[in-house]
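Field log, afternoon session.

UNIT: design team B
ACTIVITY: writing a sequence onto a fixed backbone
BACKBONE:
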């Protein structure tokens, strides 16, 4: 009762346990007022993550109906301590411990599809390992030391039962696959070759191509068919420090996925070609020290991605292979730096002309943030804008800013589409506002985007664990609610809240569609 009383005082007596009897679509009229009965957002997913030092397991729940109830409790169960060992069968029928093997447990069919749990354990000198797993079903893969192939359990393992024996097959039972890989007389020594199944799951450890182009793989017993993946080793695999590259003969070797599993593999390797160009500002001034990224397109049966930095004259040069590429220059994200260039498509041939990448000024977009009743918000509503991935770059941030006293703010960033979050001050009673916003150079500084905060759905409940015949609240757990992006299907975080000493939480969610 004390908790409800405090919440009622803080949120202007909004009902937290049952929908209010009000007209659909009614909204907050001032700060610290809420809308408890959802009209747009109704189904969400939740994840409860206990503290780092907790022996409890993570919990996920899908399709929680906020229209039926805005109170949701979660029961956390102790993570199961699974102990076991990995052994290797010997050709004489005996078993030997498999040391330094990695046992990977991956959540099977998680409630939130893109938030898959994974737990790794390493075997000791006796082949023993231990892992704490939340209760449920797990896919299990054992990755022994190369050149042995991985062991994948055919059926998911349930923590309610006994962990099956993890026995690596005897050496004589493994399928040995030997072959050669070649490509128009190129030196492929040092490249890696690995076998995969039709879904891309590894069937072998990676092998190194020799000076004669030969390689040898070990596959699980009874393997009927397989595909091959070929590429340059990572810097770590090549025995060099990160950033120092791979052997020169492999510097322009593309990556090949799901090639036919034939003994004499011939790679479609086009001739080396140079992508040269210059990066300039909107005023045509050369831009030194700017990263330039290039990646082959889906038109090619291989993937080749490389990057470089412009010199003091803004010039760059990349050794690639003939083919079609997308190219982009990406200056620093600071507001006083030029913006990213447009993504250019280049057909690279020996006669390809030099490329000029123009980095325009950063885009300035004025926004006005309104409360649910249509009035401007006050100062200190934080604005976080994250640029969505384009053909080459992962997410990039715009300048983080906050609203002025009149509810206005300015976003400064590269051209493109952004995920914009309006984060209200703590204790305001407002939910986060999430939307997509395009920063268009043509509208820079002129167009004002109005972002209205949606009415709040106040979700409460407890995270608890069974103790004997009673229950005990779980303190310090993080309760997070997600919705799905209707375009990508990815999870969008709506709210996260920590449980109090009694295991109780309060999350304020937006009642409205999110991107």
């Amino acid at each position: 009762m004390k908790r409800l009383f405090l919440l009622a005082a803080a949120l202007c007596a909004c009902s937290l346990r049952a929908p209010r009897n009000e007209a659909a679509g009614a909204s907050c009229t001032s700060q610290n007022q809420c809308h408890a009965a959802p009209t747009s957002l109704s189904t969400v997913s939740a994840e409860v993550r206990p503290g780092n030092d907790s022996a409890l397991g993570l919990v996920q729940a899908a399709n929680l109906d906020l229209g039926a109830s805005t109170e949701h409790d979660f029961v956390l169960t102790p993570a199961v301590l699974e102990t076991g060992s990995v052994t290797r069968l010997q050709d004489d029928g005996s078993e030997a411990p498999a040391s330094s093997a990695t046992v990977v447990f991956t959540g099977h069919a998680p409630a939130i599809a893109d938030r898959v749990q994974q737990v790794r354990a390493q075997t000791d000198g006796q082949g023993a390992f231990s892992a704490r797993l939340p209760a449920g079903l797990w896919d299990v893969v054992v990755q022994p030391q190369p050149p042995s192939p991985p062991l994948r359990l055919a059926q998911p393992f349930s923590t309610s039962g006994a962990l099956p024996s993890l026995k690596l097959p005897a050496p004589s039972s493994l399928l040995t696959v030997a072959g050669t890989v070649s490509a128009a007389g190129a030196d492929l020594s040092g490249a890696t070759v690995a076998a995969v199944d039709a879904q891309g799951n590894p069937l072998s450890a990676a092998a190194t191509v020799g000076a004669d182009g030969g390689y040898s793989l070990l596959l699980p017993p009874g393997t009927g068919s397989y595909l091959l993946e070929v590429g340059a080793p990572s810097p770590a695999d090549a025995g060099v420090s990160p950033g120092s590259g791979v052997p020169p003969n492999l510097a322009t070797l593309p990556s090949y996925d799901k090639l036919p599993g034939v003994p004499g593999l011939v790679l479609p390797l086009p001739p080396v070609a140079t992508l040269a160009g210059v990066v300039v500002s909107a005023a045509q001034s050369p831009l030194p020290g700017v990263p330039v990224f290039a990646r082959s397109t889906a038109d090619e049966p291989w993937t080749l991605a490389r990057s470089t930095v412009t010199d003091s004259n803004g010039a760059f040069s990349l050794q690639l292979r003939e083919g079609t590429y997308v190219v982009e220059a990406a200056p620093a994200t600071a507001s006083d730096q030029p913006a990213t260039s447009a993504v250019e498509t280049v057909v690279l041939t020996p006669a390809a002309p030099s490329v000029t990448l123009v980095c325009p000024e950063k885009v300035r977009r004025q926004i006005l943030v309104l409360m649910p009743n249509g009035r401007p918000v006050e100062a200190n509503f934080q604005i976080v804008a994250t640029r969505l991935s384009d053909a080459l770059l992962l997410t990039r941030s715009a300048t983080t800013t906050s609203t002025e006293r009149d509810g206005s703010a300015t976003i400064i960033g590269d051209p493109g589409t952004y995920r914009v979050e309006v984060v209200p001050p703590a204790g305001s009673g407002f939910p986060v506002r999430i939307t997509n916003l395009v920063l268009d150079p043509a509208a820079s500084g002129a167009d004002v985007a109005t972002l209205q905060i949606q009415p709040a759905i106040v979700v409460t409940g407890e995270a608890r664990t069974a103790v004997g015949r009673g229950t005990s609240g779980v303190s310090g757990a993080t309760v997070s609610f997600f919705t799905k992006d209707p375009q990508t299907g990815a999870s969008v975080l709506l709210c996260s809240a920590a449980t109090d000493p009694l295991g109780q939480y309060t999350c304020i969610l937006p009642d409205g569609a999110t991107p």
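LOG NOTE: The two ends are 37 Å apart (CA to CA).
NEXT ACTIVITY: expression trials, pending approval
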